[in-house]
Design a protein that fits this description.
By secondary structure, this protein is an alpha+beta fold. It contains eight helices and six strands, in the order E-E-E-H-E-E-H-H-E-H-H-H-H-H. A four-stranded mixed β-sheet has the order 1-2-4-3, covered by helices on one side. The chain has a two-stranded antiparallel ribbon with strand order 5-6. Helix 7 packs antiparallel against helix 8 (about 270-290). The termini are close together.
Length: about 300
């Protein structure tokens, strides 16, 4: 099983908070690929105290990826907050008005409508979250995270099927390289036998040509590279079947090794047909590597 780092989930729920009453929450989560776990969190002011707890919870569940989390109260209802009059400010405004009247003989009375327009007449008081509120909110966040994990699994299945096809094609192509290499070596060996017969007859040119043929035979032998390539493919298959959750980094390393063996094979064999097949393998490996960047 593979987990993609890309996913989206959302949920609107209502909770019964002992102090704030019935509270409606809307939660959205979106993740994209990243080397590590990163969280960009947008919470209402009343829930800021939960940010660290939410981050720990989600990091344990999601492991890798850049997470964008948005939590808001439905219909902009500022739950866990209340608006109260600032009696101190009101008293100050009334006393100041009385002083102005006494000092300058100004007539008139300060009405409530006048007071309501004065700055700082109201203050927002935040209701402290009790353990029950925190538990309910964290449970809702965890539920949305589970939905996100399900979306990641579904995309991970698509990535898995795509990668299986690419690695199967790479194995097929490398078997083709082996056949071409064996054929090339047989051809070189045949030439060696012919030149060797001439060299034994005293042909000096044939003796010189033998050295080049021996060098070409040595370079054309890519049995070791093909064996290591297939061994890495077996490692990939074992990784796919393992119970490890985080497979992206391991798979990326294995792809580097597969590319290394392919490049070495191309460098050793200057045969056009072999080089052409190796290019096909590299194309598939590069495509697989792009997909791997999105795996947890």
């Amino acid at each position: 099983m593979l987990l993609s780092m890309t996913g989206f989930s959302s949920k609107a729920v209502s909770i019964d908070a002992p102090k704030a009453g019935k509270v409606s929450l809307s939660i959205e989560m979106k993740t994209i690929n990243s080397r590590f776990f990163e969280m960009v969190c947008k919470l209402p002011g009343a829930l800021n105290s939960l940010e660290v707890k939410i981050q720990r919870l989600l990091q344990k569940k999601l492991r890798r990826g850049r997470l964008y989390l948005s939590v808001r109260f439905a219909e902009d209802n500022e739950a866990f907050e209340s608006i109260n009059p600032s009696l101190k400010h009101a008293e100050g405004y009334l006393k100041a008005a009385e002083q102005i009247k006494n000092a300058f003989g100004v007539k008139g009375e300060l009405e409530i409508t006048d007071l309501l327009q004065m700055p700082s007449m109201f203050v927002s008081t935040r209701t402290e979250l009790d353990p029950g509120d925190e538990k309910q909110i964290l449970a809702v966040v965890e539920t949305v995270a589970d939905l996100l994990l399900q979306a990641r699994r579904e995309e991970g299945d698509q990535l898995y099927n795509d990668l299986l096809k690419r690695f199967a094609l790479c194995k097929e192509k490398m078997n083709e390289v082996k056949k071409l290499s064996d054929s090339l070596m047989d051809s070189i060996k045949k030439s060696i036998d012919e030149k060797l017969a001439l060299a034994e007859g005293g042909d000096e040119v044939a003796k010189l040509q033998l050295e080049d043929l021996y060098a070409a035979l040595n370079k054309a032998d890519v049995h070791e590279e093909i064996t290591r390539f297939n061994s890495h493919l077996q490692g990939v298959d074992a990784l796919f079947k393992s119970d490890k959750v985080e497979k992206g980094k391991r798979l990326d390393f294995m792809l580097q090794e597969l590319l290394r063996e392919t490049n070495t094979t191309m460098a050793k064999c200057s045969n056009f047909d072999i080089s052409s097949v190796c290019v096909d393998i590299k194309v598939e490996l590069e495509k697989a590597r792009e997909q791997t960047q999105n795996i947890v």
